[in-house]
Amino acid sequence: MTTNNKINSMEYPVAPWKIPSQVALMVGTGMIMSGCASVRTSDNMTDSTLANKLIQKLDERDKLISDLQHRVQQLESKTTASTPVNKPPNPPATVAQANPPEKTAGNQAQNQPPPAQKKPETTQKKGPSAAGSFDVDEDAAQRALERTLVQTGALLLPFGQAEIQPFVTYLRTEAKQPFLFANNNNLQVSNAAIRKNEFDMGANLLVGLPFDSQAELRIPYQVINQSVVTNNGSSSNESNHTVNSLGDIGVGLAKTVVHEKGWIPDLIARLTWDTASGHISSNNIAMGGGFNDFIASLTALKRQDPLAFTGRLSYQRSLKKNGIEPGDQIGLTVGATLAASPQTSLSIGLQQTYAQETKINNIKVQGSDNVSSVFTVGASSTIGHHLFFSVSGGIGLTQSAPDYFFNITIPFRFDVPYKVIGNKL
Q1: How many helices (H) and strands (E) does the chain have?
Q2: 180 and 294 share a domain?
Q3: Is the full-model pTM beyond 0.70?
């Protein structure tokens, strides 16, 4: 009995049903403690990570705001002529500024940001310009362009204004023209070499009328030096003469029939009468032609400031005089004018005239038809409040055209006094 009790006590020091409960209690307690510790550690790590990320995002936002403020200051300094003042960048917004508290009626006016200052207008007077630059006055450029167009007939004067245009033109012509001569009682045709220096001076008067119309008057005076060399087969003769006289006075009326709209240009209709005030001298030198010429024309103007494109189509009919009837003429002119600077405009153009054959006693003179083509350039500039200065020149491209010409015009504009009776002139 004793031996069996010792053996039993050595093999089972504790009751077998108590060992599992103690172990389970110890293991469960350890697992609970370790779980709490892990939960606290993960919570602490999550809070720290979120705080770091939030601080990082705020720093990135502050940096972006600072860069944008710096760029805005650079753009404002470029748009103003005055020297920009270096202002310190605004301090970066804080978390409190990012999420401001709700405003109340008492502190709403204090928390409201000040109104933004209005940027200066570009038309305000600027500081001194840098070397090599100038301030462009758009109105002055428009005046130079507008006055050039008035001078060329592509624009009419407004009602109540007038312009007088003194001018001087020099033309040089070297051409060959057919002439008839008698040889053994037979009429023969030969060519005469004609060299002509022509000075055409005078003035144009333009007066603006109501209803978009304009009255025009041209008074020319001519001085011509002409040398003619003829060869009748057996001998040659040369004659040299200088004459001066009043040229053909021109009277005209122009009216704007269509105003520019979209792709449609301005259209000006014009009717001109060149009187026969000029004459043919005793030396057979035509002082202006000496024929009554009627010219109808239509001028188109399309503006793309600072450019203006012009075109003119004309038809001339001359009345018979002393059995001579000059051929009808069709003219075509195209050009472009550029407002190159505040007070100056430049122009370029091409003039072409197609003349039909001349008739003598209703018989056509063979070879009298011709095509005259001239390439022109010009420059105009304002020299005062009312004065304008224009220079132009041209080179002949065909045999019947002048070899070259040079023109100077000084237009002077003034107001025309008129009285108003009630609401009518």
Answers
A1: 5, 17
A2: yes
A3: no
State how far the Cα of 291 lies from the Cα of 322, in Å rounded to an integer. 10
Helix/strand/coil for 227: strand
CA nearest neighbour of 194 among 223, 231, 168, 222 = 231
Q: Does residue 27 form part of some domain?
A: yes
Number of domains in the chain: 2
Claim to verify: residue 50 and residue 148 sit in the same structural domain: no
Structure token digits, residue 161: 């204004």
Two tokens, residue 124: 């305000």
pLDDT digits (tens, 9 = 90+) for 7-30: 444 444 444 444 444 444 454 555
Provide the 8-state DSSP code for 327. Answer: P
Structure-token match 């007070």, residue found: 343
Cis peptide bond N-terminal to 113, omega within 30: no
Is residue 220 within 8 Å of 200, Cβ to Cβ?
Answer: yes
Are 240 and 274 in contact by the 8 Å Cβ rule? The answer is no
CA–CA dist 270, 312 (Å, integer): 10
Tokens 């010009």 belong to 378
Tokens linked to 268: 């000006």
Summarised one tens digit per residue, pLDDT across range 208-234 is: 999 999 999 999 999 999 888 877 666
In sequence order, the 6+-apart residues with CB closer than 8 A to the CB of 140 are: 342, 343, 382
The two tokens of residue 134 are 């100038």
Please indicate, yes or no, if residue 134 is contained in any of the structural domains.
Answer: no
Helix, strand, or coil here: 332? strand
Give 244's strand partners: 223
Q: What range does the domain containing 275 cover? A: 139-415
Is 126 among the domain residues? no
Do residues 388 and 290 both lie within one domain? yes
Quick check: 386 pLDDT over 80? no
CB 159 within 8 A of CB 210: yes
User: Max Cα separation, the chain?
Assistant: 191
Q: What is the DSSP string of 337-379?
A: EEEEETTEEEEEEEEEEEE---EETTEE-TT--EEEEEEEEEE
Q: Are residues 215 and 312 in the same domain?
A: yes
Find the length of the chain.
425
Nearest CA among 324, 302, 326, 323 for reference residue 312: 302
Q: Helical H runs in 80-209?
A: 95-98, 108-111, 138-152
Token pair of 259 as six digits? 């105003």
Are the C-beta atoms of 353 and 316 separated by less than 8 Å? no
DSSP letter (8 states) at residue 85: P
